[in-house]
Structures are given as structure tokens and as C-alpha cells.
Recover the amino acids of this structure.
């Protein structure tokens, strides 16, 4: 009997008493926020396509097009400058919080503002990001979607007068739902929320975030189609011992490149803060660098999801790989330091894929797209400091692609 009492006492001491019946209410709200995040992702992707058509092709349409196919010639330099001017005006007279790639702003809202986000940010952030990317900005859509989804989660929590901890949970639920709807990677999206935003590993927050992420992924299938954003070729069931050794080398090279990229972004931010003009004009200066880079290497403009897909499929010539590593990386860091609006995940995936493409020329052959996929995960984990998310993201892309192949073959 004493042993039973002692065991019961230890069980009580180890129990998580922060999880109460309120978890049911928060989970129900998270389901709705996950659904909203999927529609936010659809709206932002369509908005980016709209502004890309307007800026580069002078037409109205929401069909997906790439800036690289434009016929503007040297006038392409002007397009990102115009986009930067618009972003600067929106930031100064709308909300300064639209500046940046979204994730730091979400962290700031959690740490400094009690997980409260201004309602107008839910509109200004996606619009500014769509203009920025649509005018050639070398960014991804996922960062703004994360911030916008988080804004809707925070607004819902404020409407129902929830506690700061519950507001944080719903903010992260919206953020995870946004990433899940973009990449069709619900597990990695939930992990990203846990690693970057939650600051805890408790059921009271992990369960709602996971539910929101899964809901967004399910609805994404009907809005954006079945399967992952990038189709990964089927790889051999096992990696050779020699290949494993080179995986360690690939990680080392990715870590070195991550250090260079991070240092370049910090240098860019510090340099812009020394410019003796109002920060409202900085995005236009960043737009000048984007335009010059786009003139030299058109594939550096815009999101570049198609280029990432080509990298994974191993169908990219060497000059494109060098252009991504040199031009795309440079204008991304310079533009990000200028304080414009746009995400970082897609550029990091492209840069990592290019590094893997170069490695494929020298490393052992482990299947088509193997080294680009490995380096994408390594760059993502090294630069954003989310190793678990990076590993799961790469595996989730691979497994989802395999399931898609099986479904199509059946």
C-alpha cells in the first residue's frame, strides 16, 4: 500500500496541471483559425500573382507567372523601386510592423506585446508583402502568411478575452496554419511554432497548434491541390556509408554558408541604419539593388518556387546555381536589411538547393535531387536555428511526394 501511495505521489508531482478543460475551448478556436489560415494563404498567393502580372506584364490576372519571363529590358530596374516606395509609404502611414519577414514580428508580439497584434496588420501585412514580392522582391510568401495567420489568431483571442498564454497559443496556431497551408507540411509547421514561438513543450499549447496546422493542410488540398509544394523524386531506400560521410560535409558547408548569410543580413541592417535619410525610403534603395540583380540574373526575382522545384529534380544548369548563390543571396540580404516586407523560407530553400546542386557535381550519387534536399534542410536549420523543423520539413516533403506518386500510380 505504501508503494502504491508513493507511486501516486510521484505521478502527481510529474503531472502537467497547466492542462485543464479550457484546452477544449482553445482547441475549438484553433480549428477555426487553421481554416482561416488556409484561405489567407490562398489569398496571398493569388495577390502575389496579381501584382506580378501588373508590374511585369501590365495586365490583370491571378494566373501564376514568373518575373523572369518579362520583356521590360533595363526598365526592370525601376519595378522593384516602385514597389519599395509603396512599401515605405504603407509602413510610415499604415503600420511600421509590416516591415520585415514576419517571424521576428510574431516573436516580438509574443514577448513584448502580450501576444497582441493590431487588427489592421492582418490586412496591411499581406497586401504589402504581395506588392513587395509581386514587384520582384526575392522573398517567400510563407513569412507574411505566418504573421497574418498569427494576427487572426491574436484577434480571435482578444475578442474572447483570453489570457496572455492562450493568446500566444492561438497566435502560434495561426502562424503554423499559414505555413502548413503554404508547403503542405503540417508536422513541420507545428514544429516550427514550437521551436520558434511557443517557448514551451506542453499539451495546452502543442495540441491547439497541431490541430490548426492539420486543419490548414486538409483545407489546402481543396484550395491549392493535392500533394506537396515541391515534388521530390523517389530516392533509394538506404544511403551508402560513403554518402553518410558526405552528408556530414554537406552540413558543415551549409553551416558555413548560413553564417555568411546571417552576417550579410546583419551588415545590411546596420548599414541602412547609418543612411542619413528616413527609413521610409530604405525599401526603395533595397529595390534598386533588387532591380540591378534582376537585370543581371532574372531568376533572382520573385518567390522562385519553380526554381526550387527544378533544383530538387536536379534539372538546373551550373550558371543558374552560381547565379542563385551569388546574385539571389546578395539581393535577398540587402533587401531584407532595408526593412521591406517578405518571407525568408523560400529564399533559404533556393540558396540551399543551389548549394546542393553544386555538391551533386562532386559528391557520391545518392539519387536525383538528394543533395539539394539535404542542403535545403541544412541551410534552413542553420540560418533560422530550427534543426528539428528542418529535418522534419525535408522528410515530410519526401514522404508526401512518395504518397502522391503511389496515389497517382494507383
Amino acid at each position: 500500500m505504501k508503494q502504491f501511495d508513493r507511486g501516486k505521489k510521484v505521478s502527481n508531482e510529474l503531472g502537467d496541471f497547466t492542462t485543464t478543460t479550457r484546452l477544449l475551448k482553445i482547441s475549438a478556436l484553433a480549428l477555426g483559425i487553421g481554416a482561416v489560415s488556409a484561405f489567407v494563404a490562398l489569398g496571398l498567393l493569388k495577390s502575389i500573382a496579381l501584382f506580378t502580372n501588373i508590374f511585369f506584364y501590365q495586365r490583370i490576372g491571378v494566373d501564376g507567372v514568373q518575373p523572369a519571363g518579362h520583356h521590360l529590358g533595363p526598365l526592370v530596374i525601376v519595378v522593384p523601386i516602385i514597389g519599395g516606395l509603396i512599401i515605405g509609404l504603407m509602413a510610415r502611414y499604415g503600420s511600421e510592423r509590416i516591415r520585415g519577414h514576419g517571424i521576428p514580428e510574431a516573436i516580438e508580439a509574443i514577448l513584448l506585446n502580450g501576444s497582441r497584434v493590431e487588427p489592421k496588420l492582418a490586412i496591411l501585412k499581406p497586401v504589402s508583402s504581395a506588392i513587395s514580392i509581386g514587384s520582384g522582391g526575392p522573398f517567400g510568401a510563407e513569412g507574411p502568411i505566418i504573421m497574418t495567420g498569427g494576427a487572426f489568431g491574436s484577434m480571435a483571442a482578444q475578442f474572447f478575452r483570453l489570457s496572455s498564454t492562450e493568446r500566444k497559443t492561438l497566435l502560434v496556431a495561426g502562424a503554423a496554419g499559414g505555413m502548413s497551408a503554404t508547403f503542405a507540411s503540417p508536422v513541420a509547421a507545428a514544429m516550427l511554432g514550437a521551436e520558434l514561438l511557443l517557448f514551451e513543450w506542453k499539451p495546452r499549447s502543442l495540441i491547439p497548434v497541431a490541430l490548426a496546422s492539420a486543419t490548414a493542410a486538409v483545407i489546402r488540398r481543396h484550395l491549392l491541390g493535392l500533394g506537396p509544394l515541391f515534388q521530390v523524386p523517389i530516392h533509394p531506400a538506404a544511403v551508402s556509408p560513403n554518402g553518410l560521410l558526405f552528408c556530414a560535409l554537406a552540413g558543415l558547408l551549409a553551416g558555413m554558408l548560413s553564417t555568411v548569410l546571417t552576417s550579410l543580413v546583419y551588415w545590411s541592417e546596420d548599414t541602412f541604419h547609418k543612411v542619413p535619410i528616413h527609413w521610409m525610403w530604405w525599401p526603395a534603395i533595397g529595390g534598386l539593388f533588387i532591380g540591378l540583380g534582376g537585370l543581371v540574373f532574372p531568376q533572382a526575382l520573385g518567390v522562385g518556387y519553380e526554381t526550387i522545384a527544378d533544383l530538387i529534380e536536379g534539372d538546373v544548369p551550373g550558371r543558374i546555381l552560381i547565379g542563385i548563390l551569388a546574385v539571389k543571396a546578395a539581393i535577398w540580404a540587402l533587401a531584407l536589411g532595408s526593412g521591406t516586407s517578405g518571407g525568408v523560407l523560400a529564399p533559404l530553400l533556393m540558396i540551399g538547393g543551389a548549394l546542393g546542386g553544386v555538391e551533386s557535381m562532386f559528391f557520391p550519387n545518392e539519387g536525383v535531387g538528394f543533395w539539394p534536399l539535404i542542403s535545403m534542410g541544412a541551410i534552413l536549420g542553420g540560418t533560422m536555428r530550427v534543426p528539428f523543423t528542418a529535418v522534419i520539413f525535408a522528410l515530410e516533403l519526401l514522404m508526401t511526394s512518395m504518397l502522391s506518386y503511389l496515389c497517382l500510380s494507383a
Observations:
- The chain has two domains: 25-224, 241-409.
- Confidence is low (pLDDT under 50) at residues 4-11.
- The radius of gyration is 22 Å.
